Amino acid sequence: MIELNGVSRWYGNVVAVNDVTLTIGPGLTGLLGPNGAGKTTVLHLMAGLMAPSQGEVMVGGEPAWRNPNMYRTLGLVTERESVPGFLTAWEFVLASAKLHKLADPEEAARRALAIVELEDAQDRRIATYSKGMRQRSRVAAALVHDPTVLLLDEPFNGMDPRQRLHMMDLLNRMADEGR
Length: 179
What we know:
alpha+beta
């Protein structure tokens, strides 16, 4: 469960998010709004990437801010593309598995790449990928440790229609499992 209680975030005189209170339980939840509405800021607050200026953000009953243990159960794909192009998808996802100190990082990486249908291209440098393939490699890295909470900012960015349908199916299955 994710809880925001009276959360506000401002940058100097600019109010990005103002007095948001919401509870998100298992299932699929989307944040909708125009550009500049604060959706990315809310996701960054939930992911513990920034502190609220006011209020409290809890993930799984624990504070999101300054809580690195939260990442054991949380997967995150930010809006900004931050995939090192010199790595292969295999290397990138395997590194994520190792950072999570998984018992069998190779198997976890194989499973995550299969989930996003990147097995055939896993040994190519990410710099050679289309935008949709890069996005899927990022999703695989976020899923490698089988998180109970997955935060995705612009998850379908660059994906073709077939890839979008596959990703929607994956997210719906995860929601049906109670994530």
